[in-house]
From TrEMBL:
GO MF, one example: NAD(P)H dehydrogenase (quinone) activity
Transmembrane segments: none
Protein name listed in UniProt: NAD(P)H dehydrogenase (Quinone)
Domain of life per record: Bacteria
Listed Pfam families: FMN_red
Keyword NAD: yes
Record Gene3D superfamilies: 3.40.50.360
PROSITE patterns in alphabetical order: FLAVODOXIN_LIKE
Annotated ranges, domain Flavodoxin-like: 6-192
UniProt keyword annotations, A-Z: Flavoprotein, FMN, NAD, NADP, Nucleotide-binding, Oxidoreductase
Any GO CC annotation of this UniProt entry: membrane
Length: 209
């Protein structure tokens, strides 16, 4: 059997969502997955980015580390995990723009039956983590993905995160995800990989019968 293929497509401005993305990737790799980590790109002008201290520098640094997600990445994957900071209680426009670009392969049915999961971060307490993750579930359903939440299926879930996906509150970027939140993100990577492997192997056996 080949390794499960996991795409982690995220947007991060100041590093909190990036940190969670890497913890999800670590969990997936622990179960033998092949992982592609991709950062969605800005589409606003440099003048807009200059209005936020450090935005351009942070973007340049992360863009040097991660390729932009593509339609081919989504086609390749057995599972797609989306990560986003909250923007007024909803998904970031950068990640949404990537999702919207998948209309071509969606129309061809190439996303049907892949695993889908979500994680996110926000700057302030009650800043919209849960509403953001839940709103993306609607999009995953339209894409034809099989939604995999976390529930309380691991002890780490009783210390941090949400049953919908890993989360973090950065307190105006003064806090990085701690051990408890990274444990939830790691579990998310393992859970997604386990489900993706099970679904793919079942399809393989069914095709062989």
């Amino acid at each position: 059997m080949t390794k499960p293929k996991i795409l982690i497509a995220f947007y991060s401005r100041n590093g909190s969502t990036e940190t969670l993305a890497n913890a999800v990737a670590d969990g997936a790799r622990q179960l033998g997955a092949e992982v592609r980590l991709r950062r969605a790109r800005e589409f606003v002008t440099s003048e807009v980015m200059a209005q936020v201290l450090g935005w351009q520098e942070s973007a340049d640094k992360m863009n040097a580390l991660y390729e932009a997600p593509t339609e081919d990445d989504a086609d390749w994957a057995d599972a797609i995990v989306f990560g986003t900071p909250t923007r007024f209680g909803s998904i970031s426009s950068e990640l949404k723009a990537y999702i919207d670009s998948l209309g071509g392969i969606w129309f061809q049915g190439k996303l049907n039956g892949k695993v889908g999961s979500v994680f996110g971060s926000t700057s302030s307490k009650h800043g919209g983590n849960e509403s953001t993750l839940l709103s993306i579930y609607t999009t995953l359903a339209h894409l034809g993905l099989i939604i995999v939440p976390l529930g309380y299926a691991d002890p780490s879930m009783f210390g941090a995160g949400t049953p919908y996906g890993a989360t973090h509150v950065s307190a105006q970027d003064s806090l990085r995800p701690d051990e408890a939140h990274l444990a939830v993100a790691n579990f998310q990577g393992r859970r997604v990989t386990s489900v993706a492997r099970g679904l793919r192997d079942a399809q393989f056996i069914g095709a062989a019968v």
